[in-house]
Amino acid sequence: MTIRSALLALLEHKPMYGYQLRAEFERRTGATWPLNVGQVYTTLSRLERDGLVEGTGVDEDGHGMYVVTAAGREEAAAWFTTPVARSQPPRDELAIKLALAVTVPGVDVGTVIQHQRSATMTALQDYTRLKRQASSGTADSDLAWSLVLDSLVFSAEAEIRWLDHCEARVRRAAAERADDPVAPAAGPSAGPSAGNPSAATVEEVSR
Amino acid sequence: MTIRSALLALLEHKPMYGYQLRAEFERRTGATWPLNVGQVYTTLSRLERDGLVEGTGVDEDGHGMYVVTAAGREEAAAWFTTPVARSQPPRDELAIKLALAVTVPGVDVGTVIQHQRSATMTALQDYTRLKRQASSGTADSDLAWSLVLDSLVFSAEAEIRWLDHCEARVRRAAAERADDPVAPAAGPSAGPSAGNPSAATVEEVSR
DNA sequence: CCGCGCGTGTATACGTGGTATACATACCCG
DNA sequence: CGGGTATGTATACCACGTATACACGCGCGG
């Protein structure tokens, strides 16, 4: 319920109308997670249904304004103090992909890792490029957007470290299997510790 | 479309029925992202609708079996080779929360950070505890599940580093504002790296 | 023996997230 | 004056996630 809570928090600051909420959200987070306008309106009506905000007619310009209720203020405060649950983390597509890549035969894990690695590297470069032009002002929103950017950088770096780690472990697992006494050694398999460092295919890893 | 692709990849391995798919998915990823059974069936029908899998009646035990089609095999291969798009990363609830915390008045950012930090630390301890009992066998699925676990560890560590980084930057920003009549006074006074034991390698990250 | 819990297995409903799009107004500019 | 663009509201539609209904088989104790 990320969007829901975020809109609630923004409304706690001051009453707003739909379009304005979207603008404020994006101003604080950069264009990192573009928020679709439609979602704002549907979420607002759900918030009103649940008694967390209240639509107070239209203002002088004809905008449908919303104010947060007491219950809403309470829930917003709870959102800020309650840490996000790491016990059930959001699905990580990359982790799932690699987990399947090492278990499903016929997939070249090394290639998957390298493709992802270079993609993440370019993203990282984009972030650092953005950072130069983002750290100009001293406004709150600049600080927030800069922190969000840092978050992206940190997680991208972690992802690269993890990919390297995976490559090493996959290679090691392949090696263990190769000189496993009972291993059928289907073909010389070009020696996992041979020239190409990224040549660990599933044929070597699994089965 | 994570689930969709994952199921497709599993079916590429061998034909299966719904419940079995869920079991295979969880065996490879541990219980990290428990996959709801219902989702399997709805996803399977969507896959069939799109011509990527084909339901081949029931087997001798009455299970509704599914096989992947040529188009499905193609899409699965594409999924493995195409890196996950970092250009539009999934919404990060924590990053959003902090970005709003520093921009909405009346929120104690320090408290938010500390709560999250301790929550992430406990999660990290849980992971390392799990790791000991997970690295026993040598089967494919053990390697996969172990890699997934490593992914969680890496990202939790990154999160903690980021939180420390945020704390330092927020403190610095507050200090600048405090002794900032007009000109940026020289001394950062309190010193951002006061007593923090986990002093993140903030590198040349920002400012 | 029979009911009961439990694991296995399939299917559907419902709320939310996310995206596209329809629709309306205002304002600038050629 | 007519069209493009920015602002603003609203709705439709699909995908995801969870809960739940429903059915079957099997072991176990009263």
TrEMBL record, chains A, B:
Residues 181-200 have a biased composition (Low complexity). InterPro entries: Tscrpt_reg_PadR_C, Tscrpt_reg_PadR_N, WH-like_DNA-bd_sf, WH_DNA-bd_sf. This is PadR family transcriptional regulator. Residues 7-77 form the Transcription regulator PadR N-terminal domain. It comes from the Bacteria. Residues 173-207 are annotated as: Disordered. Residues 91-169 form the Transcription regulator PadR C-terminal domain.
